[in-house]
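Students often ask why inverse folding is considered easier than folding. One informal answer: many sequences map to the same fold, so there is more than one right answer. In these notes we will look at a single instance of the problem. The structure comes first.
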């Protein structure tokens, strides 16, 4: 009991400057997400520099992205869906409900991991060929997935439950859960890939071992004495009303990740048709660079969510407004800087992931096109995270669908046929960022921001 009381000032998001509380959350989150990204990024860097055949191996691993993304979509469904509700319950001092949300989210992660693993093994070949595989690249994709799928549960628990540590005011513990696994991954990758000559299978095995350690750390903390709301066995029994609320709010995050999976499938299939394995590999690198530059945006918006949700539950509406304003301005400033860095130094960023001259020559142009208007991603994430933090599932779901499913996918299929060729695939992304980002942010200001201002004025 004493431990909980001592931790209370750090876990009570209604106290202290809002910007400082968001940065306290965002800093460890950014580092944690950076390290988490290393799980796959380090794999791609090593694979892209294996020597002869590395371009094809990188293409094969790139073909697995939609499947990995779909697994992460289910982790987001139950993780991001429950976390704001969990934070609101804490803000309202309803610890019993918070415990049920955490327990049910854990059970849902485990069930979905088992189902996804079974489907992946049973239908691997037709799925990968539908995603744009050739006979040559399929060999590498299959070798990677045969091992990666076995660790799907570890990946989902580590990713999906880590947010509940951050939502309790322990972002450094959440960061460590990722750092520990990623450090192991960085050490094991060169050992398995080069020393033991396991190639892409070694990259997958290193990732699974690392994710297992991360999941173990998360579960140990959530069931230990330091946590404010512990994970208890009795709370893991599924309850219809709790599952419904988690899924309802998490659907937006699921769609965001799921439509990313859809975009990857459509992009790979279209690029295979118009450019072959080379351009599928280029897209693998371009997506990797994009993931790196989006990390701070994810960190700030994810760091703001528990702060905004907690204060919304506590009816501290002025602090909610301050949190929205602070996170939006930070993201806009950062994405403008990132855009300039990519435009000025495309060879540097592309060269990190591949030393294939043909791939680099094609990739530099693709990178410049793909990142055009990157600043609009800040508007998309600011609006999307605000809808989620305030429990506005309807708008969160719509704008998750709008940018990718309604804009990107049709443009990816249409632009190459209008004479743009492979460039049309890369052009679809900036067009969707500008249109979707602006629409999401303006709608957030006209709906939720106005509503919170009225509540603040009447409080």
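Output (designed amino acids):
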């Amino acid at each position: 009991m004493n431990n909980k009381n001592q931790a209370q000032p750090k876990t009570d998001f209604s106290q202290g400057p809002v910007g400082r509380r968001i940065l306290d959350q965002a800093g460890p989150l950014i580092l944690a997400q950076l390290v988490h990204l290393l799980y796959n990024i380090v794999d791609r860097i090593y694979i892209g520099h294996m020597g002869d055949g590395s371009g094809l191996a990188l293409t094969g691993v790139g073909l697995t992205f939609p499947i990995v993304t779909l697994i992460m979509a289910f982790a987001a469904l139950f993780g991001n869906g429950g976390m704001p509700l969990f934070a609101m319950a804490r803000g309202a001092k309803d610890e019993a409900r918070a415990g049920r949300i955490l327990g049910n989210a854990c059970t849902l992660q485990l069930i979905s991991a088992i189902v996804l693993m079974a489907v992946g093994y049973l239908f691997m070949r037709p799925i990968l060929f539908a995603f744009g595989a050739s006979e040559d690249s399929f060999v590498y994709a299959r070798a990677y997935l045969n091992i990666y799928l076995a660790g799907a549960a570890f990946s989902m628990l580590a990713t999906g439950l880590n947010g509940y540590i951050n939502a309790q005011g322990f972002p450094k513990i959440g960061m460590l859960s990722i750092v520990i696994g990623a450090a192991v991954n960085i050490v094991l990758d060169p050992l398995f890939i080069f020393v033991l000559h396991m190639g892409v299978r070694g990259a997958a095995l290193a990732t699974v071992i690392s994710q297992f350690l991360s999941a173990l750390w998360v579960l140990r903390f959530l069931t230990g004495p330091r946590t404010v709301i512990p994970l208890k066995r009795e709370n893991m029994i599924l309850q219809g009303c709790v599952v419904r609320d988690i899924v309802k709010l998490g659907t937006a995050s699921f769609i965001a990740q799921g439509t990313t999976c859809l975009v990857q499938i459509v992009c790979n299939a279209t690029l295979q048709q118009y450019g072959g394995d080379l351009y599928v590999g280029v897209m693998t690198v371009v997506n990797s660079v994009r993931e790196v530059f989006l990390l701070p945006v994810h960190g700030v918006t994810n760091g703001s969510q528990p702060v905004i949700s907690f204060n919304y539950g506590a009816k501290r509406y002025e602090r909610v407004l301050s949190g929205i304003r602070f996170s939006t301005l930070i993201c806009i400033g950062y994405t403008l800087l990132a855009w300039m860095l990519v435009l000025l130094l495309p060879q540097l960023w592309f060269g990190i992931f591949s030393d294939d001259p043909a791939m680099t020559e094609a990739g530099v142009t693709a990178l410049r096109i793909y990142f055009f208007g990157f600043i609009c991603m800040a508007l998309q994430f600011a609006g999307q995270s605000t809808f989620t933090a305030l429990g506005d599932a309807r708008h969160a779901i719509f704008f998750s669908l709008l940018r990718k499913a309604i804009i990107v996918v049709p443009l990816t299929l249409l632009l190459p046929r209008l004479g743009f060729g492979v460039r049309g695939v890369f052009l679809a992304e900036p067009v969707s960022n500008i249109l979707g980002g602006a629409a999401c942010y303006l709608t957030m200001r006209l709906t939720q921001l106005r509503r919170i201002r009225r509540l603040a004025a009447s409080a």
